[in-house]
Amino acid sequence: MARAQVMLMAVALVLMLAAVPRAAVAIDCGHVDRLVRTRLSYVQGGPGPSRQCCGGVQTLHNQAQSKSDRQAACYCLKDLLLMPGAAPRAAVAIDCGHVDSLVRPCLSYVQGGPGPSRQCCGGVQTLHNQAQSKSDRQAACYCLKDIAGRIHNLNKDNARSLAPKCGVDLPYHISLDINCNSV
């Protein structure tokens, strides 16, 4: 019975996150933990979901505005729901607002301009140094895909060459088609 409740809760959360969001916030696993984890007795076989649990799920739904926030929330929820008895994991340090501020100086270069600038490479190197865990790398990847998808006149060759030109060695190639689950 508890497994069925886990699956039901997971499906409900994913469907809520896939709906059109209403407010902006950067989502990280620490935030998801705070909103949902302590209220998941239902998933662990307890009685129906509490008002607090539903409130946490609704808050998360309202805050997951961008596609990358919804993807990050789903990634965190997957871990949370598959291991509901596990200790809360550390908060992911990477959120899309942070990523955007780090790579914003690279905009002219990825649109085909000269560069990359020293500020751009500094942001790329900082992001690389901060994204040490798999969940941080995946969160950064989803954010970068979302940001790149909104750039008018994106020069894909410049975007692909950005990390190496900034002295960052990645074991994968950056593209709009990258599977962020594999980074």
Automatic annotation (TrEMBL):
Key words of the record: Lipid-binding, Signal, Transport
Key word Nucleus present: no
Leader peptide range in chain numbering: 1-26
Superkingdom of source: Eukaryota
UniProt GO BP: lipid transport
Transmembrane segments: none
Biological function: Plant non-specific lipid-transfer proteins transfer phospholipids as well as galactolipids across membranes. May play a role in wax or cutin deposition in the cell walls of expanding epidermal cells and certain secretory tissues.
Record family assignment: Belongs to the plant LTP family.
The name this protein goes by in its record: Non-specific lipid-transfer protein
Originating organism: Triticum urartu (Red wild einkorn)
